[in-house]
Amino acid sequence: MTGLNLSEWALKHRSLVVYVMIVAVIAGCLAYFRLGRNEDPSFIIKTMVVQAAWPGATAEETMKQVTERLERRLQETPHLDFLRSFTQAGLVTIFVNLKGSANARQVSDTWYEVRKSVGDMRHTLPAGVIGPGFDDDFGDTFGIVYGFTSDGFTQRELRDYVEDIRSRLLQVPDVSKIELLGAQDEVIFVEFSKQELATLGIDRSTLLAALQSQNIVRPAGTIQTGRETISIRVSGSFQSEQDIASVNFVAGGRTLRLSDIAQVRRGYVDPPQPMFRVNGQPAVGLAIAMRDGGDILALGRNIKNAMARITADLPIGIEPSLVADQAVVVGSAIGEFMTSLLQAIAIIMVVSFISLGFRPGLIIALAIPLTLAIVFPIMEMARIDMQRISLGALIIALALLVDDAMTTTDSTLNRLAQGASKVEAATFAYRSHAFAMLAGTLVTIAGFIPVGFAASSAGEYTFSLFAVVAIALLVSWFVAVIFTPLLGVVILVPPKQESSAAPGRIFRFYRNLLTLAMRAKWLTIAISLALFVASVLAFPLIQQQFFPASDRPELLVDISLPQNASIFASETAAKRLDAALVGDPDVGHWSTNVGRGAIRFYLPLNAELPNSFFTQAVVVAKDVAARERLHAKLERLLAEEFPSAVSSVAPLGLGPPVGWPLQYRVTGPDVERVRETALRVGQIIATDPRTKGVNFDWMEPERQLRIRVDQDEARRLGLSSQAISSVLNTVISGATVTQVRDDIYLVDVVARAIDEQRISLTNLRTLQVPLPGGRTVSLSQLATFEYQQEYPLIWRRDRVPTLTVRADISGGTLPDTVVDALSPAIDKLRATLPASYGVAVGGTVEESRKSQASVLAVVPMMLFVMFTILMIQLQSFPKLFMVVSVAPLGMIGVVAALLLSGRPMGFVTILGVLALLGMISKNAVILISQIDAERAQGKSPWEAAVDASSSRFRPIMLTAVSTVLGMIPIAPTVFWGPMAVAIMGGLLVATLLTLVFLPTLYVTWFGDKGASAPSSS
């Protein structure tokens, strides 16, 4: 290769290069401390929630008139993957899910389009529809959550303190938003007896109008004088419930005070809003979200300091509790990873010192921090935080980045041994290996292309693996050709002529083995191919997995009561769960969300929207071992104490959220046929002993009281259905009349009947309905009562009713295994269904397949880039074929390692296997380049193959051993373990095959002249 020799340039400008090295180290240290810290890499939850309400409508009316109209328009959304909605009586919630390929800018633009397009069709919705409203912050993560309990304080007093704390914490740097949890809005109830109103001849509408007209805010004008402007204010607005109780109004010629005919009291919304409990006590929570790009460790310190000052000012009786603290989790995780990184560095240094000696090992030892010192500032510029993926990528890259430095150092030592000067030896490595190393580095990076460009949420989640590895490998090449030669000139000395016995024996053994393999070339090739075929056949024996469970100590406990259950029933269930957790030695602390799921305190959390029948507790065990014990105890408890509820206990997951591990979606136009099919699917799932807790996301109908009005009689009396519905709503649920403006709160004034008349169903028959003219008539005189059934909740997917059959899986079995076992029975059922009905796999398996498909879609680009780089370097189709034939042989080691260790083949493992192709190809291309260099000296293909393989044996084996041993620290981890095991096994086997199979293939292709050459050196 001709052109600029970077090593020679570096040696001619030593002072400048040393200066750059010093600056790089300083910049790296500064960047390391400035890099953001987080638990998981940020990825966009590509979901918007659209909600609309139509008070008074049935579920079927809401679905046909509101859900259907909205979904038709939303199906025109750009980048749409699918719509998912659930419809309740008078309420619709639609999830707009975009394709995984949509980038951040496209997601933002799409949400703007959704708002605009729905706004354009809002006029087509029925009269009385409220909304639609939009929530595109569905993916916000609130990593720090505090709960505040009180003793001796009212809910309002507690909320006042918490609101004040919220205002102060919003001023803390890096805080983006704070949500209140469990706060109950105050309400002033005006409760009257309908019999007493009828006896006094008081018209309910007159009473309500009197309240509204007095409390209204209207301008009364201003007076301009020669000196000033004077605003005129008219009194009468309500300041408290006493002002309302004192209202006088005229009825039947008499002046009455409201307190004489109604009870006026301040309370809280009825039914309650979603509630929050901490360690079994009612609480108000503060959930704190960090701004994008912030440092969660710095935020945690700042919040902790601010809370220490705030707590000192709190009165005795109000107690703050730290419910979720992502800063502690991240600090612990980063500490563990940094320990693993230092262990990996130490292992690689020890390998280098033992195999190369002190001085060459010292060069490798210095190359590692130099490379990392340059990588950190680039990560900072690329806005890559220190998190689970990037830290793992650093460890993987660490094992690879020493490869070039080892090659350069080994080449320099060999040249010095031949009597060359230090400068000539240092620059020779660049001339002989630099471009082969660069090609190998680029091929290795190309192996990570599917990681970086997979168009899915899982690909977005793991993107920083590609970015960090690519940065580190490119930097390592520059370090190897610029800094390493300079260090070699300073540190290395010509080796003594006599080499140690051990390397000689290893070399002789390898050359004998290689010669034997080359002589039995067809047997060598056949054995290699047979092993590869065996690994392919054994591949289905490996369990499949999407992402593993987290190693955090939390457990999510979900309790779903029948879907017509009230929030009071959910609160009762929550209290029973709290009672079981009190005093358990494995429990650190817990929080309970009644009527909703936990706020997204952890990015991959599968967040649940508010529903009165749903309760979710976050139980934090004292450690992971305690979590496992607690898991078993809670499953028994839920089975025994909550037999009618759909319940589950699960640790936090990693990767994009998917919910229940086993899911089947049943779709079709007729709801009853869908229910029937879903029941059959549930029966099939229940036949597998590995499944448990089979349930449905909706199924059971609820009771409904239907009041059939005799319209002729109603018109004769001067009534309408609207008037009757208005009376019923006011009496039973209550009607908001006006609002009291109390400090920062708006307190609704709700008029309704007293409790005993409001709650009793039998009292409805005797309900007095006011007639025009002041008379009243009982409701039973103009209406009949009957019970009916309707579905409280109906899910749809892409406008088709969809019922999801869900189940948990016991014992360590993976969802893919169960789905494969159930496939014959499900396929048989599917074949009996009409064309418009379907049964589709959902949940973990579906998301895994989508993510794997997104990776496989990029594999052609990866292969194109790899082939192009190899062709530029080798410029020979036979040699390209040889490199390509060696790369897949790594599967032999991958399959063996995963089967022996019992590790699953997950999404991250697949990425590692693809990256392994690049690592193997790098060794192969450098070895072939070395063989060509030997042949250029006039050697036969046989001699060139043997000599080149022998000279490359040490650096190739050294790199492989360093890579394998360097991954030991992350091999036991939950997330990286399977990938590390796969790479360790695959690289070891592939390295041996590269050093034996590839030379054999080379001489087979190019001829075996010299086959009788001596095998020893």
UniProtKB/TrEMBL annotation:
A matching Pfam family? ACR_tran
Give the record's keywords alphabetically. Answer: Membrane, Transmembrane, Transmembrane helix
- Where does the chain cross the membrane? 16-35, 337-356, 362-379, 391-408, 428-453, 465-493, 522-542, 855-874, 880-900, 907-931, 956-975, 987-1007
Gene Ontology molecular function: xenobiotic transmembrane transporter activity
Q: Record's GO cellular component, any one? A: plasma membrane
Q: Does the keyword Lyase apply?
A: no
Could you identify this protein by its name?
Efflux RND transporter permease subunit
